[in-house]
Amino acid sequence: MNKKDRRTTRHMKVRKRVFGTKDKPRLSVFRSNKNIYAQLIDDHQASTLVGISTVKMKDMKDNDPQKSKKFDQAKKVGDEIAKIAIKKKIKKVVFDRGGFKYHGRIKALAEAAKKGGLNF
């Protein structure tokens, strides 16, 4: 079993327990080597309510490594998803770490979202 298979197994274990509704959507996080993605998902209707990533954010499109580190980018994505969710009157979410360990960029995004006003 390689790394990708182990992460997929962990993600399936998490997804058995975590379910998003319209009132309390699922905050799903995916981390790649270069970018980080976050979505608010309503699992009842199988629709994405809000989605943001470092790819979509204009101030991070410059790939200059001196401008912002990956950790800081994760914090910015967490802040931004919280702002957008608050505008759509979503305050409570269920956190789905996507099979990743809760440390590093995943933890930074989650704490920034909590600081931005989301409860989970």
UniProtKB/TrEMBL annotation:
Tell me if Methyltransferase is a UniProt keyword of this record. no
Looking at the keywords, is Ribonucleoprotein present?
A: yes
Question: What does this chain do?
Answer: This is one of the proteins that bind and probably mediate the attachment of the 5S RNA into the large ribosomal subunit, where it forms part of the central protuberance.
Q: Name any one GO molecular function.
A: 5S rRNA binding
Q: Which GO terms describe its biological process?
A: translation
| Organism placement in taxonomy | Bacteria, Candidatus Curtissiibacteriota
Q: Which HAMAP family match?
A: Ribosomal_uL18_B (MF_01337_B)
Name recorded for this polypeptide: Large ribosomal subunit protein uL18
Annotated Gene Ontology cellular components are: cytoplasm; ribonucleoprotein complex; ribosome
Name the protein family. Belongs to the universal ribosomal protein uL18 family.
The gene from which this protein is expressed is rplR
Q: Which UniProt keywords apply?
A: Ribonucleoprotein, Ribosomal protein, RNA-binding, rRNA-binding
Source organism per UniProt: Candidatus Curtissbacteria bacterium RIFCSPHIGHO2_02_FULL_40_16b
Q: Residue span of the signal peptide, if any?
A: none
Subunit composition? Part of the 50S ribosomal subunit; part of the 5S rRNA/L5/L18/L25 subcomplex. Contacts the 5S and 23S rRNAs.
